């Protein structure tokens, strides 16, 4: 049996909650994952940034927390392409 452990990083509306889309308060900007075997040893890993579409300007709190710079997201794939690569 294999296990997948994944971590998502999110951006949110830089103008605050009053300006966010209520149906999409956050947008995924990074997927990180590890694949473990039955002995819990790492057998594969995955990491990709995702270019934000709904909130293309980074929230300052997100930048401080994640240390992800907006420049790192400029050439990143969009979510559908990143998700396909993850799968």
Distance between the termini: 17 Å
User: Compute the gyration radius: what is it?
Assistant: 15 Å
Q: What characteristic shape results from the CA principal axes? A: elongated
The chain-level structural class is alpha+beta
H and E order: EEEHHH
Strand content: 25-35%
- Overall average pLDDT: 93
Largest sheet: 3 strands, antiparallel
Question: Can you count the helices?
Answer: 3
Strand order in the sheet with the most strands: 1-2-3
Q: Helical proportion?
A: 10-25%
The unreliable regions are: none
Number of beta-strand segments: 3
Gist?
By secondary structure, the protein is of the alpha+beta class.
How would you summarize the topology of this molecule?
Elements: E1 3-12, E2 26-36, E3 42-49, H1 60-66, H2 70-74, H3 79-86
Antiparallel strand pairs: 1-2, 2-3
Key structural traits:
single chain; 87 residues; alpha+beta; three-stranded antiparallel β-sheet; 3 helices; 3 strands; 23% helix
Structural features, described:
By secondary structure, this protein is of the alpha+beta class. The protein is 23% helix and 33% strand. It has three helices and three strands; from the N terminus they run βββααα. It has a three-stranded antiparallel sheet, with helices on both faces. It is elongated, with a radius of gyration of 15 Å. The model has no long low-confidence stretch (mean pLDDT 93).
